[in-house]
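hi support,

uploading two proteins for the ticket. first:
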Amino acid sequence: MSYVLEIKNVTKKFGDFKAVDSVSFNVEDGGFFSILGGSGCGKTTLLRMISGFEEVTHGDLLVRGKSMEAIPPERRPVNIIFQNLALFPMMNVEKNVAFGLQRQRLPKKEVNTRVEEMLERVGLTGFEKKKVTELSGGQRQRVAIARSLVLNPSILLLDEPLGALDRKLREHMKIELKMLQKEIGTTFIYITHDQSEALVMSDRVAVMNQGRFEQIDTPKNLYKNPKTSFVAGFVGESNEFDVTGYADGILTTKHGYKLNKPDLDFQPKKLFMRPEAFILNPTEELEDIELIEMKVKTILFDGSNTKISATIKQSQDEVLIALPQNAQFEDLQEGDDVQAGIHYDDIKCYRD
């Protein structure tokens, strides 16, 4: 397997504080790899070490098998796009994209050819003479990508590039970026705190917490099979409960609710249940299902993402349940009694 980037036990310390703590991972050539985490988790520091703007305290990082130790940023085969894009407002699109090539003192004919080809690939043919201030947010994003990719980097680093866009444009750009990366084939390493961006666009995602990786996986496995309580709570939406006891296949929550979860071989401290995992008012007998009696407290209408907040009768715990997209529950009202079923496999338990 060909790895374009290898990170080997990399640590970054600022005084006594470890911003990145013994991180190791590999990125396949041509892949879309995302690092997902909250503010202060170390993801941007890690990106800056890859790009050369921060020195590695311990460990090593290799691009195409070559160590980047002591290689300055301008000599590394990587380019970086920040949230503010850092385009030159006094230059038109063509000059922005040509800037890096001109600094390499390439022949004018070659510069023009490469700029023309790159603008065509990112869908900006005909925009060459426009000022970047005349472009939409999405078009400026594509100019920034073109300016980076025209230099043929081995890796394109993207540090929360969609953060400044409005929600609708962000949703559109997620699809555009994914399609663009697949078409061009350059390796993307994407930093974000937005789980939707990471899950939608990536081939693999690393979830980062307090300087370490909690889990590296495909988006599907990350969502379906979170390995730690942090990942279960951070990725996607979940109902979280503290567990105070487990015996004879029965879990007891902090507020006294007891539910079945056979065959656990450890004493859990937390459990998670996703809103969409519940089956409302099951009409047939299902195996390996926990049935919970609830009362509807609030209906949270959000189109296709409508949920109800319901109270478990035995414990008064509140649970979010996603409503299926059919007419069956259109008449559901606050105060209604409902029965919710959830498969034992969808009750995720963790030691901490």
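and the second one:
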Amino acid sequence: MMSKPIEEIKNFVQIDRDGYFNAQGVRVEDDEAGLELFENLKGLTEKRSQWVTSMDDMDAVVEAYDAPYVVQSLKVLNDAVFQITMPYSHTDSFDLSTLTVDEWDRFHGVSQKGIPFVLSEPAQDSFFNLLDEFDDDSVTLNGVRFILPLWLNPHDEYDHSRWGEKYKSKDTPWDCNGPNQALKDTLAQIKMLKNRILVLGCGRGHDAAYLAECGHIVTAVDYSDEALLQAKDLYKNQKNLTFLKADALNLPSEFKEQFDIVFEHTLYCAINPEKRNQLIKSWKRCLVPEGHLLAILFASETPMGPPFGGSEWEIDARLKGDFKFVYWTRWKRSRPKRVGTELVVYAQKKPEL
């Protein structure tokens, strides 16, 4: 199975918010087909950022809206081990030691087959009934207390100086050495008029320079002196492009409602996940009324970072209070290490109530 490199796989299947497979926009209802897809589900990296499966000798990249497993029901097998059941009556098991909790109080974990899961609301209600007790930080079963770490673990956050060191040593695997293809293709589709665009965490400035080249007036911000030095050297002759050192979470007061578009690419995944809501507030504050967010985000099960992963569910939950979604799609022409993970979002700022 999976003899092809991921970049050569041309088929994509989705796992929807309820945990069912979807192919070409149609939910897979057949239990036998769904079971085969689950049985052949495979993570390609230790960080579980990319998933593939196969059916009838056809390979496919898997795009999960939430975790790859959405648990429908569960039961105790022994001590701290539970059996979990997903759609199509697919079963697996997990140990309580793998359990984590997100900021919406949803339980996540990793099955004994190495597949990340999230409990559905009915499964989580059943889980509570099986426990001795629970609180915000732990669950207790058969008198044994299990501490619940955060799902997106913030312990490995880089400080600003380490980002500069990476730019100096050119240890920057996130750098595309040019504008992101998803940005280029999206601009061709949405056909934006001339806008004032803010690019936060601009790095070497490839995306910012491309936006300026397309006729927009671009302000590109980064906190790393080294990143800005390299960006200015690369794009010193580009018109309508200004580079500025600033903290994306503490921007100058004069940025308030000064931009038609905020463009996001690789900053959201780099900062401590506990600060993501703060970053979204920065986006909203800088946008004019009814301005737009254009973002290339990563939906992948990588709880420890940077880069920190997340899910479409998590991104939707954070954004929907402040933005109305206009365009939301998984990109299909990504670089090999990003295939199946890039999510493009174009959203309009909601009016203040």
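thanks. also noticed: The two ends are 53 Å apart (CA to CA).
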